[in-house]
Amino acid sequence: MTGDRTDDGGTPPGWAAYPRQPDRPPPGDGPSRAMEVLAVAQRTAEDHIRSTRVEAENMRAQAQASAGEIVREAEAYAERIRRTAEQVLAEAHAAADELRRQANAEYDSVLGRLQANRETLLRQIESLEQFDRDFRQRLLGFMQGQIRALLGDNPQPEEYLPPGGHSAA
Asked: Is the pTM of this model over 0.85?
């Protein structure tokens, strides 16, 4: 420090606020003083390490809490999605069941109408077949009557009569 002093023995400019140091070393200077400084530095470093560890643990705990919250939110979201999917699936099954029920009802209705139409058509066919038989019988009878009438005016041998026909008397 002796090189920092001015010629007049005063303090250098800007150092006026600092008390003047004596030219001799302070008491306790030497190896014991270095040990004290080293011990203080070591305690300071240990304090900083401890506080850094505490701060790191706090940050880690906050990160874990935050991660836990994110996981819970994700699980809740997944559960809502699952419930929505189950609901949509149930609605789709219900709609499919309703469509099947409607299709079966329509099938039964169409089948019933077709069976009723079939029965009506079978009755009409039967009626037409009966009409055909009756018409043929009447036509045959009419034609035989006409032939008998013609033969009555001009008798013909039996071989010219239609099958089953007899001359009318």
From this structure: no
